[in-house]
């Protein structure tokens, strides 16, 4: 696998090089300002793959360890001793879509018209955060450019939405709540629900070191349980933020970053030329079995004689009963092979 750099045969172009990136069946082709982002981010202009010459004048062949799309960017890792890592980023600047080839050294220059997070996270002027109606002492986000809305969430305590769809959520835990939910098994079910979202996280209002000062529960049991959950749900980080104030700040910046990602991801995939999946797609028939809504489970439970409350979250055993019942139904459905004998 190689990254190919050739001279641009068009004498009228202000971009003297052609860049062939081995992504997809035919690769991606860009006109580029330079052969590598050494001192500045390299501006690139995407063109059709047919623009790559039949007999190109190759300037450089760069063997690659990997070339992988990650969201709105392509990670390029060269197989050489120096100048290994770079990234082709699809972004917006000056009111239009732009592509920059950047390295760790030039990353700041490759983000035109985007403010680095200082007081305002991810450049979002006014972020709307949905606060779960059952959150007793919610974060106020008083020092940030945030509007909060109280309503019921199917999972998580704080969330951001786009076009009416939840794209990210954060579950807040004090250390005592974390230990209680971990030992009772509720945390496992909570992470299972969070895993149905495009992005999710758990934030803990304490230090990880405090786990090892516990006297009512064996610290090793808690540490092993947290590690096991991170292996089982690797896309849901469990973040220890030392204090409630820091946890609130982390939650704000995480949700702002998720909101920005959700707005740019689909457009970037179209530009890269890969199949686009919206950050939070409508639930399909197949997904509905794996991730039902709380209303669906409540209706099913009542139809099967199980008592459930009219509002609020359902107990973990209700969710498990729903999964068990539908797993058995799937195994006996025509056309679906049974496991075992």
From TrEMBL:
Source domain of life: Bacteria
InterPro entries for the chain: ERCC4_domain, Lsr2_DNA-bd
Annotated Basic and acidic residues bias = 322-333
The region called Disordered is annotated at 322-341
What would be one Pfam family of this protein?
Answer: ERCC4
| Record-annotated ERCC4 domain positions | 128-208
Q: What is this protein called?
A: Lsr2 family protein
């Amino acid at each position: 696998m190689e990254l190919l750099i050739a001279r641009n045969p068009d004498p009228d172009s202000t971009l003297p090089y052609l860049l062939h990136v081995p992504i997809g069946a035919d690769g991606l082709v860009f006109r580029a300002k330079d052969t590598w982002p050494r001192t500045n981010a390299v501006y690139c202009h995407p063109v059709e793959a047919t623009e790559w010459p039949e007999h190109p004048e190759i300037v450089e062949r760069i063997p690659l360890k990997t070339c992988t799309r990650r969201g709105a960017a392509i990670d390029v890792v060269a197989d050489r001793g120096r100048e290994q890592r770079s990234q082709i980023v699809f972004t917006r600047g000056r009111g239009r879509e732009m592509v920059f080839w950047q390295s760790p050294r030039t990353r700041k220059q490759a983000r035109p018209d985007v403010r680095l997070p200082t007081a305002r996270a991810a450049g979002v002027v006014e972020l709307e955060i949905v606060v779960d109606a059952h959150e007793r002492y919610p974060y106020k986000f008083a020092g940030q450019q945030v509007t909060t809305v109280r309503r019921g969430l199917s999972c998580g305590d704080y969330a951001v939405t786009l076009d009416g769809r939840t794209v990210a959520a954060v579950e807040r835990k004090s250390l005592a709540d974390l230990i209680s939910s971990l030992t009772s098994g509720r945390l496992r079910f909570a992470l299972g629900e969070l895993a149905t979202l495009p992005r999710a996280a758990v934030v803990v209002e304490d230090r990880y070191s405090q786990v090892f000062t516990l006297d009512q529960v064996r610290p090793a049991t808690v540490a092993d349980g947290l590690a096991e959950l991170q292996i089982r749900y690797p896309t849901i980080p469990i973040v220890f933020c030392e204090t409630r104030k820091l946890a609130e700040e982390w939650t704000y910046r995480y949700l702002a970053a998720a909101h920005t990602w959700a707005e740019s991801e689909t457009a970037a995939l179209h530009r890269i030329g890969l199949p686009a999946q919206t950050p939070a797609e409508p639930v399909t028939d197949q997904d509905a079995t794996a991730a039902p809504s709380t209303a669906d489970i409540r209706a099913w439970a009542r139809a099967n004689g199980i008592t459930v409350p009219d509002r609020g979250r359902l107990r973990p055993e209700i969710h498990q009963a729903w999964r068990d019942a539908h797993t058995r139904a799937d195994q006996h459905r025509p056309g679906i092979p049974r496991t075992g004998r």
